């Protein structure tokens, strides 16, 4: 015998489908929320990690900047020490030169000439004095040129004052200091020539002999 379903099955199926659609929609919404939360959490972790790396880099940069400042201070200290070292080396190098210089000044001055003033400006020496005659000054200049420790004497002033009958002439001349033991600079580059292989350093220049007592007046 055939059975006939008189219940509203279409409505029941529609309700079932609507229920399934609602469940799927809810599940999709929940999945979307979870996915959004996961993405947000992932990028938040990435941002936190990047912030930590940035903080680390900034800390290292601060350390490097501190070290750079310390290096700059050390460079300044090094520069001051090198400047002092250079001054000390110059003083040590010129110590023997000054001894020979004053010895040469004593040995080269002829009779009838008296020095009244000695001034030094780097390698330039200015000598002022009185003399019995022009010839005495010329003799003095030749003695200075031959001393080995002074060169290029240039007479700037000589005049008769008449105040001192014994030494009536006043003079002023300039000489350039020289070191006969220093290496020569023949090529003019400002640097001493390298010594030749097997060559020996030249001996120190002998001081000039004092002028004769009977120099021409």
Order of helices and strands: HEEHEE
Number of domains: 1
Low-confidence stretches: 194-217
Shape: rod-shaped
Regarding CATH, which class? Alpha Beta
CATH H-level name... which superfamily? General secretion pathway protein M, EpsM
Structure description:
It is a single chain. It is built from two helices and four strands. It is an alpha+beta fold and 217 residues long. The protein has one domain: 2-Layer Sandwich (Gyrase A, domain 2), CATH 3.30.1360.100. Strands 1-2-4-3 form a four-stranded antiparallel sheet, covered by helices on one side. The radius of gyration is 50 Å and the shape is rod-shaped.
């Amino acid at each position: 015998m055939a059975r006939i379903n008189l219940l509203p099955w279409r409505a029941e199926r529609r309700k079932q489908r609507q229920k399934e659609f609602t469940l799927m929609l809810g599940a999709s919404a929940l999945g979307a929320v979870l996915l959004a939360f996961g993405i947000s959490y992932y990028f938040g972790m990435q941002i936190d990690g990047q912030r930590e790396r940035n903080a680390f880099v900034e800390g290292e940069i601060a350390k490097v900047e501190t070290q750079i400042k310390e290096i700059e201070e050390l460079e300044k200290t090094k520069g001051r020490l090198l400047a002092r070292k250079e001054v000390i080396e110059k003083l040590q190098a010129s110590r023997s030169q000054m001894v020979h210089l004053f010895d040469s000044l004593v040995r080269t001055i002829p009779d009838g000439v008296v020095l009244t003033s000695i001034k030094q400006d780097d390698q330039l020496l200015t000598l002022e004095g009185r003399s019995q005659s022009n010839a005495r000054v010329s003799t003095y200049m030749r003695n200075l040129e031959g001393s080995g420790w002074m060169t290029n004497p240039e007479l700037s002033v000589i005049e008769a004052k008449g105040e001192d009958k014994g030494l009536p002439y006043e003079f002023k001349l300039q000489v350039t200091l020289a070191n006969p033991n220093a290496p020569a600079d023949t090529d003019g580059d400002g640097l001493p020539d390298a010594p030749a292989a097997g060559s020996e350093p030249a001996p120190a220049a002998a001081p000039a002999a004092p002028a004769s007592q009977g120099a021409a007046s």
